[in-house]
Every structure is written in C-alpha cells, then in structure tokens.
Design goal:
Helix content: 25-40%
Distance between the termini: 109 Å
Strand content: 25-35%
Shape: elongated
Largest sheet: 4 strands, antiparallel
Number of strands: 12
Radius of gyration: 28 Å
Number of domains: 3
Structural class: alpha+beta
Length: about 270
C-alpha cells in the first residue's frame, strides 16, 4: 500500500470511528460527567443519548439512583431539566389543549417514578405519613420548587426545598392563604381535628369542616363547624386543644368565624 492509499485508509478509519455510535457504557460515562459538571447529586444508573442540539451539544436523558432523573445538555455550563417538572409542564399543556413536543419529557422507564421520588422528598421534609399522591405545584419567588403531597386519611402538605433544607406546610395552613390542595379532602382534614375532641368541652361536636383563622406563639386558632350548626374556635398547641370560644365570642380572632352564621347583634353585645 502506497502512502496515499495509507492516508486514505487512516482518514476512512477516523470517519468510521466518528460515525460509530458510542456504547451504552460510553454514553453513561459521558452523561455522568455532564451530571457532575452541573453539580447535581445524582449517580447515573441509566443514560441514553438523544441526539445533538442545534449548537452541537449532546442531549442526554439520565436516571439517577433513588432520585429524580434529568434531561441534560452538554453545554458550558451544562443545562439540566428535572423530569418531574417536565412532566408537570406537559400535563398542564395537555390540560389547556396544547401539544407536548417530542423529546420534551423523560421516557426512560426508571424515570416514571414520580410518586417514589416525591415520597422520598416528603420523608426528608418530615411529613408524618405514607404519601399516596403528589405533584409539582410551582416555584416560589426565590426559585424554590414547591410540591404537594397527599396523605391517606389525613391532611396533606406543600413541601419546599430551600437552601437551608426542606420545609413543610400542612394543607390547612396552605388553604388559609387562598391556595389549594388537590390531594386532601375535607374529611381527611376533619379526621385529625376529631381525634383531639375527646375530653374537651365540645367533645359532642360532630365536626363537619375546619379552617385555620390564624396562629401565633400561643398556638393555632381553628374554626370548626359542627353538624348541629354550632361553631367554635379552638386554640390548639402541641397537638392538644386549649381554650374553646363560641363563634359569637371569637369575632376578633382572625376575622371571626365564616362557616357558622352568628345571630344579628350577638357579636355587638359581647
């Protein structure tokens, strides 16, 4: 083989190597490098090379050991897209009659684990239940992602991961700020309150609804509407009922009762 033919063969081999698809092991290693460069806490268990972006960066989907997966771009710095957030965005788009572009959500079977991931987040946030439902709610002004989780037979929570760690807010408080909880029913909220009634002055109240009127260092002030149409405000601290106020005497607590009608003039007489 003359030199010209050898050079041609070398060039042909180089092109062949360039065109040859990387092995799964190579894809996984390359994806892990992108994950590490992005500063994500993720040990890649599976990765797929989806292609290249218009600016010639590799696009990967990765599954992470025990956590949420990502779509990744090998740009500088790397761009990362949380699979849970992508799924939520797609669900909202479909609900509004929109289309979800191909490749804009995670497809690996290992990434269809949203509830498992959310249950893990809930444990880290100190949620005292076995989570049976969950979703992404949105982001705070500080850019922290907020999730909702539901609890079987009990009040659910909004949880948020801030720089200093996880924080949780029960749905009773969430709903007092005019936000909603999709996975918590009235009955589930009332169940927790009913458990505190035995031995109190209103232990004969068949609680139908409750709402949070306010809270301070002395506890939480919760309005309860009974099946008899009587209403009260109970001060709760350390998971126990303290003072109890009939609604007619509670007009200055958090704006007063709104679920129980008060006879005209009754409040003014107090």
């Amino acid at each position: 083989m003359n030199r010209s033919a050898a050079r041609d063969q070398i060039e042909q081999n180089r092109r062949s190597r360039q065109n040859r698809a990387p092995s799964p092991e190579q894809v996984k290693a390359s994806a892990q490098a992108v994950v590490t460069s992005a500063g994500l806490s993720c040990r890649v268990t599976e990765a797929t090379l989806l292609g290249k972006t218009d600016d010639d960066n590799d696009l990967y989907e990765v599954a992470c050991d025990g956590g949420v997966g990502y779509l990744l771009q090998s740009s500088t710095p790397p761009q990362t897209f949380d699979c849970l957030i992508l799924a939520n965005q797609a669900e909202r788009a479909r609900a509004q009659g929109g289309e979800v572009p191909a490749g804009s959500t995670c497809a690996l079977p290992a990434n269809q684990n949203g509830l498992i991931v959310l249950a893990g987040y809930a444990r880290q946030a100190g949620v005292p239940c076995t989570v049976d439902a969950g979703k992404v709610v949105g982001k705070t002004a500080a850019g922290n992602v907020v999730y909702e989780v539901g609890c079987p037979g009990a009040d659910g929570y909004h949880i948020e991961q801030a720089a200093q760690g996880w924080a949780k807010t029960d749905c009773l408080e969430v709903m007092s700020t005019n936000l909603t909880c999709e996975f918590t029913t009235v009955e589930e909220q009332v169940a927790g309150f009913k458990a505190l009634l035995p031995g109190t002055d209103i232990d004969d109240c068949d609680a139908q609804r409750i709402q949070l009127l306010g809270q301070n260092d002395n506890g939480r002030f919760i309005e309860v509407k009974c099946a008899s149409n009587d209403g009260y405000v109970a001060r709760i601290k350390d998971n126990a009922i303290g003072q109890i106020y009939p609604c007619a005497l509670a007009v200055r607590i958090g704006g007063g009762c709104t679920m129980t009608p008060i006879a005209a003039g009754t409040a003014e007489q107090q």
